[in-house]
Amino acid sequence: MVFTIMVFEYLLLLFQVVVYKNKMKICCIGAGYVGGPTMAVIALKCPDIEVAVVDISVPRIAAWNSDQLPIYEPGLDGVVKECRGRNLFFSTDVEKHVREADIVFVSVNTPTKTRGLGAGKAADLTYWESAARMIADVSKSDKIVVEKSTVPVKTAEAIEKILTHNSKGIKFQILSNPEFLAEGTAIQDLFNPDRVLIGGRETPEGNKAVQALKEVYAHWVPEERILTTNLWSAELSKLAANAFLAQRISSVNAMSALCEATGADVTQVSYAVGKDTRIGPKFLNASVGFGGSCFQKDILNLVYICECNGLPEVAEYWKQVIKINDYQKNRFVNRVVSSMFNTVSNKKIAILGFAFKKDTGDTRETPAIDVCKGLLGDKARLSIYDPQVTEDQVQRDLSMNKFDWDHPLHLQPMSPTTVKQVSCVWDAYEATKDAHGICILTEWDEFKKLDFKRIYDNMQKPAFVFDGRNIVNADELREIGFIVYSIGKPLDPWLKDMPAVA
After folding, report:
1. Which of 107, 324, 393, 449 has the CA that lies 20 to 30 A from 314?
2. 10-14, 66-70, 489-493 — which is least confidently predicted?
3. What CATH number labels 15-221?
């Protein structure tokens, strides 16, 4: 009897070893905003797949293995904690997990070049090339390599050449699988995506690789939502999607300037326009401008690609989307300064919200940076409150050069210069105490519920509110005593007397 039990236990152990050895392994290089959440959801939805997220940043991996994740995203914490240690692992042992993986996702930084050919527009593929060379160097078995970063069209071809010329007989298939996540709703976007796009070579080997990745997503995504294309279409689709979305924001923001000049209400205009089923209501909210890690970078990349392919008119068209975005931020700053007797020198301005949108702590390309720098240029004193952004991050953003943010953290300035005119507080009431004006730059829900009578009583008079997100009831605030500016809305009589400088 004892012998029978021992044999059974041995066979069970042997079975587990065989299953474990045959278990598909996925590795993602890059534990950032894309890699971390995407791999966490794959691990949750595919318990039969072992998923490893690797990064050379020790602090970042330590954070992923702690109770305080390195990024804030609603729902992410629960997903990670359910899978971590079971079939989801975070590690700095990059080479080991790449070597063992069947599918390697690459989600590394692709910053905009700051010098050399294409500076200010072209994507810097230094980190992508380094990752490709490492994959080729450590691999001992055939692999599917998946582009997850947003990359220029034809990047796959370049990566393919690197892998092929360093393959030592190992076969690699390159796929493009761009992400279409919106921060603040990333987990829901991953759970229920509009589409999953997979691009590959139109060869038997390429089709087989596409099918392998398709089967991963098919664990939870309906087959009709998994789209397959050639490599170049997949790469370009990501840039095109972000360009179209940014274009809509710039379009409504351009209209907001005209609304202020004519007395129209941009909210009413955009509602009427959005009722047209050919247009739809999404991304038609006027604001101080768009931000985030992708829009500006991807449009600049698109501009560069157009210029390289002899399409200057097309390049100029997309440049205008960014120009309007910059115009909107400058217009907002000018409105603040001109409304307050044409100077904010030594005046306290409360900044409510620093993240580029609500429900995220991400400050990459946030409009708040340019608005704050504009006010600091006129020697304002800023008191900043954001529920998810640390003082260290605010100071880092306000002192970094443009595009520095998109390099890995360990390559960014370690000790940014502290901007003495800036203080960060963890309470909206403290931020607004003794302030001359308030700038609302992020649409956090809590800002809609503030006791503005209490705030008004503790501010310098006249007290100003500059609503860069159109989230407050301007009429109610005017009844309290505020002078209110809402983007694209009929102007307060006070503001008509003090027009923004163009």
Report:
1. 107
2. 10-14
3. 3.40.50.720
